[in-house]
Structure of Glutathione S-transferase:
Amino acid sequence: MYVLYHFPYSQHARRVHSLLEEARLVYRLEHVAMDQGDYLTANYLAVNPNHQVPSLVDEETGVKIHESNAILRYLCVKHALDNWYPSDLVQRARVEQWLDWNQCRLSPHVVGIVLNSVFMGEDGDKDAIARSHEAMKELSEILDAGLADRPYLAGDRATIADLSVASNIFQLCLADAMPKQANINDWYARISQFDGFQKSLPT
């Protein structure tokens, strides 16, 4: 049994939720009310001292792990989910590249736009919003080019890279900032059909 500490408006938590569903792993969600400060309680800090979601507890092994992409890798390796985390060297390299690109390049600007324009309201940093919208012009072109000759980021099948990046694209939709490029829109439409992705979305 896995316990996923989760908040539905966290794109990082949703990507893990998606994989748990797609792989049909046994889990339960433990809601962390980020909007009410639950992430700063002593109980939660004992699970994740970074006071963020998600966190995963593997009750079988006792492992506590945070950082969403690390959790995705852990689940894939433990359960030999080669379809989601391919062992083929070329495909694995693409998966790793897009996971890191998503976290290092895309994610900060998703936060810059969505946190400040949706969740912070009038207190949001308008300069941060503008900077991130400007950055998205380049980033969306990079993502679109990466999908120009393949249906998914690593090849012919969806992988954890797709779940990871798609969680950020959904987040941008909250701020009406979905990229407009055709390859991205076609790819996102395909990912949106996955049952696990649908079940991860906030209701």
Remarks:
- The helical segments are 11-22, 42-47, 68-78, 89-119, 126-146, 160-174, 182-192, 195-200.
- DSSP finds eight helices and four strands in the chain.
- The chain has two domains: 2-79, 89-194.
